[in-house]
Write a structure and sequence with these properties.
Phosphoribosylglycinamide formyltransferase; binds glycinamide ribonucleotide; two-stranded antiparallel ribbon; binds ligand LMY7XDAE; EC 2.1.2.2; transferase; alpha/beta; Rossmann fold; 9 strands
């Protein structure tokens, strides 16, 4: 089933690019109706425009209240008839009203194996710095449904990555990003095909 997707970003947009590429290769049946960034200079906005996708800067700091911001964001999603919101490196916290209205229709990609190295303060390169600092032998990436918490929603896909040698946080980020690009597309594909069944915290992938 083709979904109307909104992608929220804050930075480079390589995860956004993986969705754009998958759509253009007909791996995904959906359409990205809008890309929203809370950072004006996010390169992901450039990526979207290069592919003729509506791309806007929208940040809560430009609104007099969170309520005003929520109202505007909801308006944008409704006008575009959005079915699925994808947080692809979005570093803002999605407001409660949006979460309620789009219950189990918002997914996030996180560059660690949740519940490790996640939550407030864990984003971007600092996730990988903390992973290396701790000395874990396995990290990876996670997609999950978004709820009122931060990185606490039901987990959809996780893929591990072994850390077998001394590497920099930048190199680790690159290797984890490769996994992210893959599992994010897989996650959207599963949702298109209605193969996910949510049972409390558990997400069952139907054959
Ligand atoms: N309601 C939710 N909103 C968001 C979720 C979520 O699970 N529920 N996931 C995050 C994505 N995320 C990790 O995957 C994440 C994003 C941002 C932060 C964070 O600490 N941000 C800082 C500000 C960073 C900045 O603006 O430079 C902060 O809020 O203090 C942690 C995790 C997306 N939204
Ligand atoms: N907690 C949120 C978080 O850390 N998200 C991470 O930000 C990066 C964005 O890269 P991109 O802009 O190239 O997709 C990605 O690694 C994504 O997992």
């Amino acid at each position: 089933m083709s979904l109307n997707i909104a992608v929220m970003i804050s930075g480079s947009g390589s995860n956004l690019q993986s969705i754009i590429d998958a759509i253009e290769k007909n791996i995904l049946k959906s359409e990205i109706k809008i890309v929203i960034s809370n950072m004006e200079k996010a390169y992901g906005l450039v990526r979207a425009k290069k592919h003729g996708i509506d791309a806007v800067y929208l940040s809560k700091k430009d609104y007099s209240s969170l309520k005003e911001y929520e109202k505007e964001l909801l308006e944008v999603f409704k006008n575009k008839k959005i079915d699925l919101i994808v947080l692809a490196g979005y570093l803002g916290i999605v407001p409660e009203e949006i979460i309620k209205y789009y219950k189990n229709k918002i997914v996030n990609i996180h560059p660690s194996l949740i519940p490790s190295f996640c939550g407030k303060g864990f984003y971007g390169i600092n996730v990988h710095e903390k992973v290396l600092e701790y000395g874990v032998k396995v990290t990876g990436a996670t997609t999950h449904f978004v709820d009122e918490g931060v990185d606490t929603g039901p987990i959809i896909i996780q893929e591990p990555l072994k850390i077998e040698e001394e590497i920099t946080a930048e190199e680790l980020q690159k290797r984890v990003l490769d996994i992210e690009h893959k599992i994010l597309v897989e996650t959207i594909r599963l949702i298109e095909d209605k193969r996910l069944e949510i049972n409390g915290r558990k997400v069952l992938i139907r054959r």
